[in-house]
C-alpha cells in the first residue's frame, strides 16, 4: 500500500503550525541554554538586577541614617569653639588647616558611626518597642547586627589611625577616650546608659569637655585649656542630655533599661535639666561681669539673652524632641557668637 504524498492545503496548514511550535520551543531553549559568553538577555538583566541595586542603595541610605548626620554638628561646633578659643581667629592658621580637615572627618562621621553602631546593637530590645524607632534599619532588618559590628570596627580603626598619623597624640588620646565612653555607655555589663547619673556624666564629658578640648589641642597644649570653659561645657551638655532620656521612657521601661528618666521620673529629669541650664547661664553671666575671661564695659546682649535661653529651654523640654533641643542649641549660639567676637577682638592673652 502506498501512502499519498501530503500535498495541498493540508500540508500548508502543517507547515504554518510547525514554525509556531518550534518558535516557542526555540525561545525557551534560547532563554535557558544561552551561551555564557553572550550574557543574559537584555530584558532579564534589567529585571533581575534592579532589586539588587535597589537593596544596595537602601542599605547605603540605612547606614547613613544610622550614623545620625544631624548629630555631627554637635562635635564640629564644640571643636570649632575650642579652636577659636585657642587661636583667637575665626579660621585656623594655614599650617593647621590639614589637621583641622582631618579632625572634621574624625569628629563627624567616624566617631558617630563607631559610637552609634554599638549603641544600636545593644538598644535593639528597647528599639523594637519604641514607636520613634519603628523604621530604624536594625529594627526592620535592613541591616544586621553583623553589619553594625563590621562598621563599628572599621570606623574605630579608621578614627584612631587618622588621629595618630595625621593629627597628633593628644587628639588621638581624646578620640580613644570618646570611643571608650561610647562603648561603656552602651555595652553590657557596664552599660552606663542604665546607671542614672553616670549616663549623664559620660555624655557631658564626651561632648561638653573632650570635643572642645579636641579643637583646642590642634593649636595649644591641653593643659592650658580654661577650667571654667570645661565646667560650663559639662553643665550645658548635661542639661541637654537629660531630656533625651524622657523621649524613650516607655520603651526603656518595657525593655528593662533603667535610664535616668525611668529611675527618677520624667518630671524630675526635666526639672534637673532646667536647673543645670539655669546654673550654667548664671555662672556664665557672673564670669562675664567679673571679667574672668574677657574684660568688657557692657554685656547687654548676654544679660538680655539669658532670660531667652532659660525660657526657650523650659518650653522645649515640656515636650522634648530632637528638633526642639536643636532649637535650644541655636538659641545658645547667639551669646556664644557674641562672646567669641569679643574674645577675638581682645587679641592674644
Automatic annotation (TrEMBL):
<feature type="transmembrane region" description="Helical">
    <location>
        <begin position="197"/>
        <end position="218"/>
    </location>
</feature>
<feature type="transmembrane region" description="Helical">
    <location>
        <begin position="100"/>
        <end position="118"/>
    </location>
</feature>
<feature type="transmembrane region" description="Helical">
    <location>
        <begin position="224"/>
        <end position="242"/>
    </location>
</feature>
<feature type="region of interest" description="Disordered">
    <location>
        <begin position="1"/>
        <end position="52"/>
    </location>
</feature>
<dbReference type="GO" id="GO:0016020">
    <property type="term" value="C:membrane"/>
</dbReference>
<feature type="transmembrane region" description="Helical">
    <location>
        <begin position="157"/>
        <end position="185"/>
    </location>
</feature>
<dbReference type="InterPro" id="IPR044878">
    <property type="entry name" value="UbiA_sf"/>
</dbReference>
<dbReference type="InterPro" id="IPR050475">
    <property type="entry name" value="Prenyltransferase_related"/>
</dbReference>
<dbReference type="GO" id="GO:0016765">
    <property type="term" value="F:transferase activity, transferring alkyl or aryl (other than methyl) groups"/>
</dbReference>
<dbReference type="InterPro" id="IPR000537">
    <property type="entry name" value="UbiA_prenyltransferase"/>
</dbReference>
<dbReference type="Pfam" id="PF01040">
    <property type="entry name" value="UbiA"/>
</dbReference>
<protein>
    <submittedName>
        <fullName>Chlorophyll synthase</fullName>
    </submittedName>
</protein>
<keyword id="KW-0812">Transmembrane</keyword>
<keyword id="KW-1133">Transmembrane helix</keyword>
<feature type="transmembrane region" description="Helical">
    <location>
        <begin position="70"/>
        <end position="91"/>
    </location>
</feature>
<keyword id="KW-0472">Membrane</keyword>
<dbReference type="GO" id="GO:0009234">
    <property type="term" value="P:menaquinone biosynthetic process"/>
</dbReference>
<feature type="transmembrane region" description="Helical">
    <location>
        <begin position="274"/>
        <end position="293"/>
    </location>
</feature>
<feature type="transmembrane region" description="Helical">
    <location>
        <begin position="325"/>
        <end position="345"/>
    </location>
</feature>
